[in-house]
Design a protein that fits this description.
5-stranded antiparallel beta sheet, 3-stranded antiparallel beta sheet, 14% strand, 10 strands, alpha+beta
Protein backbone atom coordinates (compact mmCIF):
# COMPACT_ATOMS: atom_id res chain seq x y z
CA UNK A 1 0.00 0.00 0.00
CA UNK A 2 2.18 2.84 -1.32
CA UNK A 3 1.72 6.40 -0.11
CA UNK A 4 2.08 9.58 -2.22
CA UNK A 5 5.84 9.94 -1.66
CA UNK A 6 6.53 6.37 -2.76
CA UNK A 7 4.18 6.80 -5.73
CA UNK A 8 5.98 9.98 -6.73
CA UNK A 9 9.34 8.23 -6.60
CA UNK A 10 8.01 5.30 -8.64
CA UNK A 11 6.61 7.64 -11.29
CA UNK A 12 9.96 9.46 -11.44
CA UNK A 13 11.72 6.13 -12.07
CA UNK A 14 9.13 5.24 -14.71
CA UNK A 15 9.67 8.52 -16.59
CA UNK A 16 13.46 8.25 -16.45
CA UNK A 17 13.46 4.63 -17.56
CA UNK A 18 11.10 5.37 -20.47
CA UNK A 19 13.66 7.89 -21.71
CA UNK A 20 16.45 5.31 -21.56
CA UNK A 21 15.14 2.80 -24.14
CA UNK A 22 12.88 2.43 -27.15
CA UNK A 23 10.17 -0.28 -27.19
CA UNK A 24 10.75 -3.05 -29.71
CA UNK A 25 8.57 -3.02 -32.87
CA UNK A 26 6.60 -6.01 -31.60
CA UNK A 27 5.68 -4.32 -28.29
CA UNK A 28 2.20 -2.80 -28.01
CA UNK A 29 2.18 -1.69 -24.35
CA UNK A 30 2.21 1.99 -25.24
CA UNK A 31 0.06 1.67 -28.36
CA UNK A 32 -2.59 -0.30 -26.50
CA UNK A 33 -4.71 -3.42 -26.70
CA UNK A 34 -6.92 -2.04 -29.44
CA UNK A 35 -3.95 -1.49 -31.75
CA UNK A 36 -2.56 -4.96 -30.98
CA UNK A 37 -5.83 -6.64 -31.94
CA UNK A 38 -6.23 -4.44 -35.01
CA UNK A 39 -2.75 -5.56 -36.10
CA UNK A 40 -3.72 -9.21 -35.59
CA UNK A 41 -6.86 -8.80 -37.71
CA UNK A 42 -4.82 -7.11 -40.45
CA UNK A 43 -2.32 -9.99 -40.47
CA UNK A 44 -5.14 -12.49 -40.90
CA UNK A 45 -7.21 -10.62 -43.47
CA UNK A 46 -4.56 -8.79 -45.52
CA UNK A 47 -1.35 -10.78 -45.12
CA UNK A 48 -2.68 -14.34 -45.15
CA UNK A 49 -1.51 -15.48 -41.73
CA UNK A 50 -3.32 -18.69 -40.93
CA UNK A 51 -1.96 -19.97 -37.60
CA UNK A 52 -1.49 -18.52 -34.13
CA UNK A 53 -0.20 -19.46 -30.70
CA UNK A 54 0.14 -17.66 -27.38
CA UNK A 55 2.92 -17.72 -24.82
CA UNK A 56 3.22 -15.80 -21.57
CA UNK A 57 5.84 -15.32 -18.89
CA UNK A 58 5.10 -17.34 -15.78
CA UNK A 59 4.83 -15.13 -12.66
CA UNK A 60 6.49 -12.28 -14.49
CA UNK A 61 6.96 -9.72 -11.68
CA UNK A 62 8.11 -12.23 -9.01
CA UNK A 63 10.70 -13.59 -11.47
CA UNK A 64 12.83 -10.43 -11.33
CA UNK A 65 16.00 -10.70 -9.21
CA UNK A 66 17.50 -7.70 -7.48
CA UNK A 67 21.10 -8.61 -8.25
CA UNK A 68 20.22 -8.96 -11.94
CA UNK A 69 18.31 -5.67 -12.00
CA UNK A 70 21.22 -3.86 -10.35
CA UNK A 71 23.51 -5.17 -13.11
CA UNK A 72 21.23 -4.31 -16.01
CA UNK A 73 18.96 -1.33 -15.20
CA UNK A 74 20.38 2.11 -16.10
CA UNK A 75 19.58 3.49 -12.64
CA UNK A 76 21.55 3.96 -9.39
CA UNK A 77 21.65 0.89 -7.17
CA UNK A 78 19.89 2.70 -4.33
CA UNK A 79 17.01 3.70 -6.61
CA UNK A 80 16.62 0.12 -7.79
CA UNK A 81 16.59 -1.28 -4.26
CA UNK A 82 14.48 1.41 -2.56
CA UNK A 83 12.09 2.42 -5.36
CA UNK A 84 11.93 -0.34 -7.99
CA UNK A 85 12.02 -3.19 -5.46
CA UNK A 86 10.52 -1.16 -2.57
CA UNK A 87 12.79 -3.11 -0.24
CA UNK A 88 12.26 -0.76 2.70
CA UNK A 89 8.47 -0.90 2.53
CA UNK A 90 6.53 -2.57 5.32
CA UNK A 91 4.34 -5.14 3.65
CA UNK A 92 1.18 -5.46 5.69
CA UNK A 93 -1.40 -8.24 5.84
CA UNK A 94 -4.47 -8.60 8.01
CA UNK A 95 -5.26 -11.81 9.82
CA UNK A 96 -8.75 -12.89 10.86
CA UNK A 97 -10.64 -10.40 13.04
CA UNK A 98 -10.55 -10.91 16.79
CA UNK A 99 -13.77 -11.59 18.74
CA UNK A 100 -13.98 -7.84 19.36
CA UNK A 101 -14.01 -7.21 15.62
CA UNK A 102 -10.51 -5.75 15.40
CA UNK A 103 -7.77 -6.80 12.97
CA UNK A 104 -4.21 -7.57 13.96
CA UNK A 105 -1.73 -6.16 11.44
CA UNK A 106 1.14 -8.44 10.54
CA UNK A 107 4.25 -7.18 8.78
CA UNK A 108 6.37 -9.47 6.64
CA UNK A 109 9.31 -9.28 4.28
CA UNK A 110 8.73 -7.96 0.75
CA UNK A 111 7.57 -10.50 -1.84
CA UNK A 112 9.98 -11.74 -4.49
CA UNK A 113 10.74 -9.63 -7.53
CA UNK A 114 9.16 -6.26 -8.20
CA UNK A 115 5.86 -5.29 -6.52
CA UNK A 116 2.62 -5.73 -8.42
CA UNK A 117 1.18 -2.42 -7.24
CA UNK A 118 4.16 -0.21 -8.05
CA UNK A 119 3.85 2.55 -10.64
CA UNK A 120 7.35 1.65 -11.90
CA UNK A 121 6.93 -2.12 -12.29
CA UNK A 122 5.13 -2.01 -15.65
CA UNK A 123 7.93 0.04 -17.21
CA UNK A 124 10.62 -2.23 -15.76
CA UNK A 125 8.85 -5.25 -17.25
CA UNK A 126 8.47 -3.50 -20.63
CA UNK A 127 12.15 -2.53 -20.57
CA UNK A 128 13.13 -6.15 -19.99
CA UNK A 129 10.93 -7.49 -22.81
CA UNK A 130 12.28 -4.83 -25.19
CA UNK A 131 15.67 -6.59 -24.94
CA UNK A 132 14.23 -9.86 -26.35
CA UNK A 133 16.65 -11.49 -28.77
CA UNK A 134 15.44 -14.32 -30.98
CA UNK A 135 16.18 -15.51 -34.47
CA UNK A 136 13.87 -14.23 -37.20
CA UNK A 137 11.63 -16.97 -38.58
CA UNK A 138 10.28 -16.34 -42.07
CA UNK A 139 6.50 -15.90 -42.42
CA UNK A 140 5.96 -15.26 -38.70
CA UNK A 141 5.05 -12.08 -36.80
CA UNK A 142 5.26 -11.49 -33.03
CA UNK A 143 2.83 -9.26 -31.11
CA UNK A 144 3.54 -8.57 -27.43
CA UNK A 145 1.45 -6.84 -24.77
CA UNK A 146 2.75 -6.90 -21.17
CA UNK A 147 3.75 -10.55 -20.56
CA UNK A 148 1.54 -11.94 -23.35
CA UNK A 149 3.15 -12.99 -26.63
CA UNK A 150 1.17 -13.92 -29.75
CA UNK A 151 2.91 -15.56 -32.69
CA UNK A 152 1.19 -15.49 -36.09
CA UNK A 153 2.42 -17.51 -39.03
CA UNK A 154 1.53 -18.72 -42.51
CA UNK A 155 1.89 -22.38 -41.60
CA UNK A 156 1.94 -24.59 -38.52
CA UNK A 157 5.62 -25.49 -38.81
CA UNK A 158 6.88 -21.91 -39.01
CA UNK A 159 4.91 -20.90 -35.90
CA UNK A 160 6.12 -23.98 -34.00
CA UNK A 161 9.75 -23.17 -34.90
CA UNK A 162 9.33 -19.51 -33.91
CA UNK A 163 7.73 -20.63 -30.65
CA UNK A 164 10.87 -22.51 -29.62
CA UNK A 165 12.99 -19.49 -30.51
CA UNK A 166 10.69 -17.30 -28.40
CA UNK A 167 11.01 -19.61 -25.39
CA UNK A 168 14.79 -19.38 -25.61
CA UNK A 169 14.63 -15.60 -25.97
CA UNK A 170 12.37 -15.19 -22.93
CA UNK A 171 14.74 -17.32 -20.84
CA UNK A 172 17.57 -14.87 -21.63
CA UNK A 173 15.70 -11.62 -20.84
CA UNK A 174 17.65 -9.31 -18.52
CA UNK A 175 16.67 -8.61 -14.93
CA UNK A 176 15.74 -12.04 -13.64
CA UNK A 177 15.09 -15.69 -14.37
CA UNK A 178 12.05 -16.10 -16.61
CA UNK A 179 10.05 -19.14 -17.63
CA UNK A 180 7.32 -19.30 -20.24
CA UNK A 181 3.90 -20.96 -20.27
CA UNK A 182 2.83 -23.30 -21.73
CA UNK A 183 6.04 -25.30 -21.78
CA UNK A 184 7.29 -27.91 -24.24
CA UNK A 185 5.37 -30.69 -22.48
CA UNK A 186 2.06 -29.36 -23.83
CA UNK A 187 1.68 -30.28 -27.52
CA UNK A 188 -0.65 -28.84 -30.16
CA UNK A 189 -0.69 -25.28 -28.87
CA UNK A 190 -0.44 -23.91 -32.43
CA UNK A 191 -3.91 -23.55 -33.92
CA UNK A 192 -5.63 -22.36 -37.06
CA UNK A 193 -7.17 -18.89 -36.95
CA UNK A 194 -10.41 -20.48 -38.19
CA UNK A 195 -10.76 -21.81 -34.64
CA UNK A 196 -11.68 -19.10 -32.08
CA UNK A 197 -8.71 -17.95 -30.00
CA UNK A 198 -8.42 -15.50 -27.11
CA UNK A 199 -6.34 -12.38 -27.38
CA UNK A 200 -6.20 -9.64 -24.74
CA UNK A 201 -9.81 -9.78 -23.60
CA UNK A 202 -11.34 -10.67 -26.97
CA UNK A 203 -12.30 -13.75 -28.94
CA UNK A 204 -11.03 -13.73 -32.53
CA UNK A 205 -11.93 -16.14 -35.34
CA UNK A 206 -11.62 -16.07 -39.11
CA UNK A 207 -14.94 -16.55 -40.88
CA UNK A 208 -15.70 -17.00 -44.58
CA UNK A 209 -16.60 -13.32 -44.91
CA UNK A 210 -13.92 -11.83 -42.66
CA UNK A 211 -12.70 -11.88 -39.06
CA UNK A 212 -15.06 -11.76 -36.09
CA UNK A 213 -13.82 -10.00 -32.94
CA UNK A 214 -15.93 -10.01 -29.78
CA UNK A 215 -15.37 -9.31 -26.06
CA UNK A 216 -14.81 -12.39 -23.92
CA UNK A 217 -17.63 -13.67 -21.73
CA UNK A 218 -15.76 -12.41 -18.67
CA UNK A 219 -15.62 -8.86 -20.01
CA UNK A 220 -19.31 -8.94 -20.92
CA UNK A 221 -20.26 -10.32 -17.51
CA UNK A 222 -18.31 -7.55 -15.77
CA UNK A 223 -19.97 -4.93 -17.95
CA UNK A 224 -23.49 -6.30 -17.50
CA UNK A 225 -22.99 -6.78 -13.76
CA UNK A 226 -21.77 -3.22 -13.32
CA UNK A 227 -24.61 -1.88 -15.46
CA UNK A 228 -27.26 -3.74 -13.46
CA UNK A 229 -25.91 -2.62 -10.07
CA UNK A 230 -25.35 1.01 -11.08
CA UNK A 231 -28.75 1.34 -12.77
CA UNK A 232 -30.43 0.07 -9.59
CA UNK A 233 -28.38 2.43 -7.39
CA UNK A 234 -29.19 5.45 -9.55
CA UNK A 235 -32.85 4.54 -9.72
CA UNK A 236 -33.03 4.18 -5.93
CA UNK A 237 -31.31 7.56 -5.41
CA UNK A 238 -33.61 9.37 -7.84
CA UNK A 239 -36.75 7.73 -6.42
CA UNK A 240 -35.74 8.83 -2.94
CA UNK A 241 -34.96 12.32 -4.21
CA UNK A 242 -38.41 12.59 -5.81
CA UNK A 243 -40.12 11.26 -2.70
CA UNK A 244 -38.37 13.76 -0.41
CA UNK A 245 -38.24 16.59 -2.98
CA UNK A 246 -34.53 16.73 -2.19
CA UNK A 247 -32.63 18.71 -4.86
CA UNK A 248 -29.25 17.80 -3.44
CA UNK A 249 -30.03 14.08 -3.60
CA UNK A 250 -31.35 14.57 -7.13
CA UNK A 251 -28.08 16.24 -8.10
CA UNK A 252 -26.10 13.29 -6.67
CA UNK A 253 -28.25 10.85 -8.66
CA UNK A 254 -27.72 12.79 -11.88
CA UNK A 255 -23.96 12.81 -11.28
CA UNK A 256 -24.01 9.04 -10.77
CA UNK A 257 -25.88 8.78 -14.07
CA UNK A 258 -23.14 10.81 -15.76
CA UNK A 259 -20.43 8.56 -14.29
CA UNK A 260 -22.16 5.46 -15.62
CA UNK A 261 -22.65 7.11 -19.01
CA UNK A 262 -18.96 8.03 -19.10
CA UNK A 263 -17.94 4.49 -18.15
CA UNK A 264 -20.16 3.05 -20.91
CA UNK A 265 -18.66 5.36 -23.54
CA UNK A 266 -15.13 4.45 -22.42
CA UNK A 267 -15.94 0.73 -22.57
CA UNK A 268 -17.30 1.15 -26.08
CA UNK A 269 -14.15 3.02 -27.09
CA UNK A 270 -11.94 0.31 -25.61
CA UNK A 271 -13.75 -2.39 -27.61
CA UNK A 272 -14.37 -0.32 -30.73
CA UNK A 273 -12.48 -2.87 -32.86
CA UNK A 274 -15.11 -5.54 -32.11
CA UNK A 275 -17.35 -6.64 -34.98
CA UNK A 276 -20.72 -6.07 -33.29
CA UNK A 277 -19.76 -2.96 -31.33
CA UNK A 278 -22.74 -1.01 -32.74
CA UNK A 279 -25.09 -3.64 -31.31
CA UNK A 280 -23.51 -3.18 -27.88
CA UNK A 281 -23.65 0.60 -28.33
CA UNK A 282 -27.38 0.56 -29.13
CA UNK A 283 -28.22 -1.71 -26.20
CA UNK A 284 -26.18 0.21 -23.63
CA UNK A 285 -27.41 3.62 -24.77
CA UNK A 286 -31.00 2.33 -24.76
CA UNK A 287 -30.67 1.37 -21.08
CA UNK A 288 -29.27 4.82 -20.25
CA UNK A 289 -31.87 6.65 -22.34
CA UNK A 290 -34.67 4.66 -20.72
CA UNK A 291 -33.53 5.66 -17.22
CA UNK A 292 -33.16 9.31 -18.26
CA UNK A 293 -36.67 9.28 -19.77
CA UNK A 294 -38.30 7.72 -16.70
CA UNK A 295 -36.80 10.31 -14.34
CA UNK A 296 -36.94 13.27 -16.70
CA UNK A 297 -33.19 13.85 -16.85
CA UNK A 298 -32.65 16.41 -19.60
CA UNK A 299 -29.59 17.78 -21.35
CA UNK A 300 -29.51 21.05 -19.41
CA UNK A 301 -29.57 19.25 -16.07
CA UNK A 302 -26.75 16.96 -17.19
CA UNK A 303 -24.60 19.91 -18.25
CA UNK A 304 -24.99 21.57 -14.85
CA UNK A 305 -24.05 18.37 -13.02
CA UNK A 306 -20.85 17.73 -14.98
CA UNK A 307 -17.48 18.08 -13.27
CA UNK A 308 -14.16 16.22 -13.23
CA UNK A 309 -15.60 13.51 -10.98
CA UNK A 310 -18.18 12.50 -13.59
CA UNK A 311 -15.68 11.79 -16.36
CA UNK A 312 -13.61 8.71 -17.09
CA UNK A 313 -11.58 8.14 -20.23
CA UNK A 314 -10.32 5.25 -22.29
CA UNK A 315 -6.55 5.05 -22.11
CA UNK A 316 -5.14 3.06 -25.08
CA UNK A 317 -2.51 1.39 -22.90
CA UNK A 318 -5.22 -0.16 -20.73
CA UNK A 319 -7.15 -3.28 -21.65
CA UNK A 320 -10.38 -1.80 -20.31
CA UNK A 321 -11.93 1.59 -19.67
CA UNK A 322 -10.17 3.20 -16.71
Amino acid sequence: DFGPVARGAQRMVAVLLQMAYTPAPFQYNRLGVREAITKAVWLITEEGYTHVTELDITSHYPSFLMEELVKALPLPKSAILQIVAASSAQWQTNNLPTPLGHHNHLFHTPPLGIPQGSAASTIVAEWSVSKLKMITVIDTVLINYADNFFLFGKCNDSVAFALEALRLGIAKLPGGVFNSHPDKSQPDIVQSVTTPFRMLGCHIVKMKDGVDVSPTETNLQKLNGRMAIKLQEIQATLLQANKLSDSKLRFEGVQEFLRLQSYVNSWLEAFSMCTDIEVFRSDLHYQLDELAYIFGIEKGELEKAKDSSTECHYYPSSAIAT
